[in-house]
Amino acid sequence: MQLEEEEQIKIIVEAAAAAAAKVNTEAITSATGPNTSTQAAASANEEDDKDKEDDKDAKKKKNRCGECRKKVGLTGFQCRCGGLYCAVHRYSDKHNCTFDYREHGAQEIRRNNPVVVGEKIQKI
């Protein structure tokens, strides 16, 4: 029991040391690097713009059924074709699914069962 606790403590200490070393090198690089204050401000503005765009995308996305546009909330079903569907349209035959289940199954069989070729028998 004691050995397990000591091993866990060692792992935590090593991880903390590695994180501290990484922060140290980043601080040194940023302090001595070619970045000027205007470049840093420009990069900060670009990051803010990206964050705002991500927020807009998150607000735009609604959880609605791809077939009937009904709100699905947390009970939506993600299909292999990439769509989100309600309980009625969750099956592939109910929403004109574009995913090729037959080809997917054939690929899986090919992957799990490689072709075995026997050695040729020499004729006398």
TrEMBL record:
Boundaries of every AN1-type domain copy: 59-105
Top-level taxon of origin: Eukaryota
The keyword Acetylation appears for this protein: no
Listed GO MF terms: zinc ion binding
Biased composition regions of type Polar residues, renumbered to the chain: 30-42
Biased segments, Basic and acidic residues type: 53-63
InterPro entries reported for this sequence: AN1-like_Znf, AN1_A20_ZnFinger, Znf_AN1
Keyword tags: Metal-binding, Zinc, Zinc-finger
Disordered: region residues: 27-63
Pfam families: zf-AN1
Protein name (Swiss-Prot/TrEMBL): AN1-type zinc finger protein 6 isoform X3
Organism encoding this protein: Drosophila pseudoobscura pseudoobscura (Fruit fly)
